[in-house]
Amino acid sequence: MTAGRVVDAVVMAAGEGVRLRPLTERWPKPVLPIDGRPVIATLLRELAQAAVERVTVVVGHLGEQVEALLGNPRAFPLEVSFVAQPERLGSADAVARAQAKAPFLLTAADTVYWPGDVTRFLAALEPETIAGAIAVRRQPGRPDHTRIRVEGTRVVRVRDAAGRGELTAAPLMLVGEAVSRELQAVTRPPFRPPYEVAAAFQNVIDAGGEIAAVEIGRTRDLTSPADLVRENFAYLRG
Fold first, then answer.
1. What is the pLDDT of residues 216-226, one digit of tens each?
2. Which residues contact 189 (CB under 8 A, 6 or more apart)?
3. How far apart are CA 234 and CA 236, in angstroms?
4. At 179, which helix (H) or strand (E)?
5. By three-state DSSP, how is residue 42 classified?
6. Cα dihedral across residues 155, 29, 219, 74: positive or negative
7. 63, 14 Cβ separation under 8 angstroms
C-alpha cells in the first residue's frame, strides 16, 4: 500500500434489514434499488472513483443474491471478494471476519453517498497516522440516524443518545491500526454479542485515541419501505 492511500474497503452487507420487512424476507437490502439501480452497485462504483482497488463484501442474509449481482469480475473497476458471516453477531464480528489490513475504508452496503463524498472523506485524512475516522452529516428529518458528539474535528461520543446537536454519524469510516485491533478485541470475552463497530471506536476514544470527524453531504438510505418509494420516484421526494 502506498503511504497515505487507502486501497482496500470492507462493505457490510450481512444484515437482515428488519425494518424493511416484508421486502427483505425475499431480497437482501443491498440489492434493492435507489434510482432504479442496486444500492450496492452504486456504492462499489463510488468506491472505485475514490481509488479503492479491493473490496471485501461481508454477506449473510440471502447473501447468494448479493454474490450473484456482484460476481461478474468485469462489472466493476475493482477487485471484489466475499466473506460470509454465518451468525448475526453484530457489525464488529462482520468486519473482523474480513481480515482487512489497516488502514481500510469501512461502509454499510445500503447507503448512497453524495457524488464525490467518499473521495473527499479520504482526502481529508492521513490514514497512516490516525486511529480512525467517522463521516458525519447534517440531515434533518431522519430520526433513524445515529446522533454523534463532535468537538472541533474530533469525535468524542460515537453514540450520543441524549444529544441535541445537528450532526449524525454516516456509515462511512476509516479503520486505522488502533480501531482494527479493538475490533478484534470486542469480539472476544468478556464482551458479549452483538459485537458492534461503534463500541470499538468508542473504546479507542476512551483510551485517548483520536477519531477524526469529517463532514460529508446528505446520504440516501434504505431504512423503511417508504424510503424505497421516495428514492426511486423523484417527484415524491418533494
1. 999 998 888 88
2. none
3. 5
4. helix 177-185
5. helix
6. positive
7. yes
Sign of torsion over alpha carbons 89, 90, 93, 95: positive
Secondary structure of residue 23 in the 3-state scheme? helix
3-state secondary structure 96-155: HHHCCCCCEEEEECCEEECCCHHHHHHHCCCCCCCCEEEEEEECCCCCCCCECEEECCEE
Of 143 and 157, which is predicted with more confidence? 157
Q: Residues in the chain, how many?
A: 238
Instruction: Report d(CA 57, CA 107) in Å as an integer.
Output: 10
Long-range pairs, 147-151, Cβ under 8 A, ≥24:
148/213, 150/213
In this prediction, residue 59 has a pLDDT band, given cuts at 50, 70 and 90, of very high
* Rounded percentage of the chain residues whose pLDDT exceeds 70: 94
Q: If you ran DSSP here, which 8-state letter would residue 191 be given?
A: -
